[in-house]
Amino acid sequence: MDILTAFGRTMGFSFAAGINLYATVAILGLASRYGWVNLPPQYQVFDNTWIIAGALVLYVVEFFADKIPWLDSAWDAVHTLIRPLGGALIAIATIGDVSPGTETLVGLLGGALATTTHLSKTGTRAVANASPEPFTNWILSLAEDVFVIGLGTLALKYPAAAAIVVIVCLALIIAFATWIVRAVRRRFARPSPASA
Questions:
Q1: Does the pTM exceed 0.85?
Q2: Region label for 35, one of left (φ > 0), alpha (ψ between -120 and 50) or beta (otherwise)
Q3: Is residue 107 one of the residues assigned to a domain?
Q4: What pLDDT band is residue 69 in, cutting at 50, 70 and 90?
Q5: Is residue 131 part of a domain?
Q6: 196 in any annotated domain
Q7: Does the pLDDT of residue 106 top 70, yes or no?
Q8: Above 80 in pLDDT, residue 134?
Q9: E strands, the chain, where?
């Protein structure tokens, strides 16, 4: 497996883990178990009945938890440590036989990618959960599931394309975060009407 393929898969799965760790692990396990694509030997770590079953059960729990606003926020809060750690572990497991230094860097990258997507998801969902209507939350939840499954499939079959999707999404997240920070600064930098 060449470095671009390994890197594309690692980035894609770590990025997806920050949104839905359990769907990501289930995809990895099922792909390894049923040979959807020709995967290197290190992916066999996911080919365990207990890992696949646990990931599928937790995915179903998350699927329903995501639809209830207060439960969704609590679920995301609990996963603030779990998803980034999962992204780091997925990165380490999928990169293969590399030096300890490279493995550490890849783990940090995987954790950072998962943290980025987790915080983006959590912030977006917190705003949606504050809305009195439930439909925005449901639509976001379903869109996240479709995105994670799509990115996972893309990472398996076309790793270079998955890497490009991750880079574009990161650029959008950074641009959006920058815009929010500037808007907040402008809002609080304005002189109040009483002092004018």
A1: yes
A2: left
A3: yes
A4: confident
A5: yes
A6: no
A7: yes
A8: no
A9: none
